[in-house]
């Protein structure tokens, strides 16, 4: 059991924390991979697609990369599970349409949804901070096996609107956007580098360690840890 956390809000990482990395890699990644070519050729003028393609070209130093070269880069980043912002933007476009069509339903570990409902009912605010784009997060929380959970969530943050997840400045930005004191924010994540950055910004942290997840063996350094959300006691004192 972790200690008792008296906080105003809980900020959630997704992959490895609320949800299985295996599901993302085995279900969502192939869904995106098989649709990149059509997105890059048929919807090149869509402003979101054009902006992401420009970012890919900048990151790879290939200003003239055509759709085929851009697709190759996206596929290579997928193979590495690289959290590159333009990859996440384009995945988000494809996935949100897949969720809306009913092709996709998100995954949450069994302990997560009851905890989110209980924390929300207790007056805590819930936020998401994930490398997955805001569009993907919105779809993920809207289309769950337990229905639409988006009403539980007060705000969504990604690497575009908050910044990289391993930099303290991103957590300062989120604290300021939410209006919650840093010391009243609790961040739950599976990645030690993210937990370190949140703590450096003055947040409370709990590392989530689930057997079978990629960071399980590495552990979460000297952060408090829990194997599931029902091991975390969170409340919000009103005084
Ligand atoms: C709903 S986003 C899908 C998961 C994803 O693509 C991702 O990168 C999640 O990374 P996280 O920062 O939540 O570990
Ligand atoms: Mg994660």
Automatic annotation (TrEMBL):
For this chain, the family text in UniProt reads:
Belongs to the HAD-like hydrolase superfamily. MasA/MtnC family.
Name by which UniProt lists this protein = Enolase-phosphatase E1
Any keyword Hydrolase?
Answer: yes
Q: Which reaction does it catalyse?
A: 5-methylsulfanyl-2,3-dioxopentyl phosphate + H2O = 1,2-dihydroxy-5-(methylsulfanyl)pent-1-en-3-one + phosphate
Q: Which InterPro entries match?
A: Enolase-ppase_E1, HAD-like_sf, HAD-SF_hydro_IA, HAD_sf
Coiled-coil spans are none
Taxonomic source organism = Streptomyces cellostaticus
- Source taxon at top rank: Bacteria
- A Pfam family of the record is Hydrolase
Pathway membership, UniProt: Amino-acid biosynthesis; L-methionine biosynthesis via salvage pathway; L-methionine from S-methyl-5-thio-alpha-D-ribose 1-phosphate: step 4/6; Amino-acid biosynthesis; L-methionine biosynthesis via salvage pathway; L-methionine from S-methyl-5-thio-alpha-D-ribose 1-phosphate: step 3/6
Give GO terms: molecular function aspect only.
2,3-diketo-5-methylthiopentyl-1-phosphate enolase activity; 2-hydroxy-3-keto-5-methylthiopentenyl-1-phosphate phosphatase activity; acireductone synthase activity; magnesium ion binding
What transmembrane ranges does the database entry give? none
Q: Name one GO biological process term.
A: L-methionine salvage from methylthioadenosine
- What is the free-text note on the cofactor? Binds 1 Mg(2+) ion per subunit.
Q: Which cofactor does it need?
A: Mg(2+)
Aminoacyl-tRNA synthetase is among the record's keywords: no
Q: What is its EC number?
A: 3.1.3.77
């Amino acid at each position: 059991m972790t200690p008792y956390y008296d906080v105003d809000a809980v900020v959630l990482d997704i992959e490895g924390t609320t949800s299985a990395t295996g599901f993302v890699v085995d279900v969502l990644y192939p869904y995106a991979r098989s649709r990149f070519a059509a997105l890059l050729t048929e919807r090149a003028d869509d402003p979101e697609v054009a902006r992401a393609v420009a970012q890919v070209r900048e990151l790879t130093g290939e200003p003239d990369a055509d759709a085929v070269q851009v697709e190759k880069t996206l596929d290579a980043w997928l193979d590495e599970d690289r959290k590159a912002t333009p990859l996440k933007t384009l995945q988000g476009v494809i996935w949100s349409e897949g969720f809306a069509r009913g092709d996709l339903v998100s995954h949450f570990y069994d302990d997560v949804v009851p905890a989110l409902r209980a924390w929300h009912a207790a007056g805590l605010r819930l936020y998401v901070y994930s490398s997955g784009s805001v569009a993907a997060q919105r779809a993920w929380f809207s289309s769950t096996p337990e229905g639409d959970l988006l009403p539980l969530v007060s705000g969504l943050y990604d690497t575009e609107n908050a910044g990289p997840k391993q930099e303290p400045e991103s957590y300062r930005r989120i604290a300021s956007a939410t209006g919650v004191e840093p010391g009243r924010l609790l961040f739950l994540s599976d990645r030690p580098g993210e937990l370190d950055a949140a703590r450096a910004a003055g947040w409370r942290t709990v590392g989530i360690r689930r057997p079978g997840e990629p960071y399980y063996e590495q552990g979460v350094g000297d952060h408090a840890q829990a194997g599931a959300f029902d091991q975390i006691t969170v409340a919000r004192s009103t005084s």
